[in-house]
Amino acid sequence: MTKNYIFITGGVVSSLGKGIAAASLGAILKARNLKVTIIKLDPYINVDPGTMSPTQHGEVFVTEDGAETDLDLGHYERFIHTKMTCLNNFTTGSIYSQVLQKERRGDYLGATIQVIPHITNAIKERIILCSKNNNIILVEIGGTVGDIESLPFLEAIRQMAVDIGRKNVIYIHLTLVPYISTAGEIKTKPTQHSVKQLLSIGIQPDILICRSEQTVPLNERKKIALFCNVPVNAVISLKDVDSIYKIPKLLKNQKLDNYICEYFQLNAPEADLKEWEKVINAEKSSNKTIVIGIIGKYIKLPDAYKSVIEALKHAGLKNKIKVNIKLINSQNIKNKNVRQLKKLNGILIPGGFGDRGIVGKLLSIQYARENNIPYFGICLGMQIAIIEFAQNVVGIKEANSTEFDPECKYPVIDLINNQNIHTCTKYTKKNNNIDLGGTMKLGSQPCKLSINSLSRKLYNKDIIIERHRHRYEVNNILLKKIETAGLKVTGRSQNNNVAEIIEISNHPWFLACQFHPEFTSTPRDGHPLFIDFIKSAGKNKKN
Ligand code: GLN
Q1: pTM
Q2: pLDDT digit string, tens, across residues 78-129
Q3: Which of 248, 266, 289, 522 is in Cβ range 3.0-4.6 Å of 322 for a Cys bridge?
Q4: Number of domains in the chain
Q5: Which residues line ligand 1 (CB under 6 A)?
Q6: Domain range spanning residue 159?
Q7: What is the CATH number of the domain that holds 485?
Q8: Do 189 and 337 share a domain, yes or no?
């Protein structure tokens, strides 16, 4: 199968939405029956984002095979409906680490190890490793052209056109075309400069995607085409839109996919974007609005909860409900009757690490439980729900997690003893169980659901497979009293019988899970737990 590569770089400024643009283009090409995959290259030195703070990097997205990756992989999965793997994202750090391991083993037979060719070769090998069984491989280069740290990636993708053949490589450059209101003009100069910078590295872009507030008019597109040496029909305008799901159509309307297929000489049927139309129509047809509170630590940073927020919106689409999301700082919740909680139709506590803000989370769960407010706990949100129930219903005041109090008397949540440590062995040797990075229960694991439970009804399956990312889990030995008091375990891991889902049945909707269902929700299908949570929150009347 001929492999065609589309390399996407960014220019002028960061945060232009390169990931969404790449995912949207992937979605159109997939809709043309092409086999598409997307790879994200991150120029930072961390081996993966697993140990990085969400304030630095946003959410850590977890793949089925247990890689901790950039959140853009979440967009890729949601847009192109293809499962990402540990090969779809790598960093400068992981490349260096791999090259250094080889150097220590003597694999280079005494050569001097250099950025070119050793680092660039390792980058190219990793791109090619991920290309198997695909006609189109989109490769998004993180950062902005001009950054020192992304140079080896740019050099590697420059070389790939020589290795593979220029006719099988397209370079797309995503830039900003600002509107200067005082002059009343759209400015093309930053784009020209950015392209110049790319040219100085040896890359002539074939397509320019211009991000702007308003559509870039033909005259300006002609000007960009002339100065940047690309045909005018390859200067694509990508204006701000109120929904990211409108972007595939916006790109298709400008025939970006036709241009690419002609360039690669691919004979692929027209893209059918009906599924996307449905999503956009569902967005328009919501007939009520509800407010869901996400109680967490990163309220100024919605990207920290990207997949959760997306999954809530997908569930809204499925219920024809507009979901407004309120990020609430758990540290501001000092008692269970705070006004902030009273306005919510539903409460969700997402995953998290460390003891900061735990008290506010315990109070929010108590409030939801006692006042029949739909509650959805995810990972940490399940662990805290168990602690809350043990403390306030069972009456064990010392119940806690050893994550927050290693010496606690009643550790209802404890370190995973038999840790199923993940390491992607496709390109490195297996780690020992000593590091913080890559030493959690990670990735997809099967879970058995109990008959007559809400989860069993919602999934309509006995065994489900969901993705994990945690170091602590429910302590089975201390569960009996809690279950007798009314909090039931309705899902258990298939391999070692650990609690994975809990439910309280005499409550309108109280469900929490140890895994992360948000990672598998898509705009087209939603996720059964999120869909039912929103349905139930929709019935919970608030003013
Ligand atoms: N901190 C908890 C653990 O390590 C929960 C992790 C999470 O919410 N992803 O088990």
Answers
A1: 0.91
A2: 999 899 999 999 999 999 999 999 999 999 999 999 999 999 999 999 999 9
A3: 289
A4: 2
A5: 351-353, 379-380, 383, 403, 469-472
A6: 4-278
A7: 3.40.50.880
A8: no
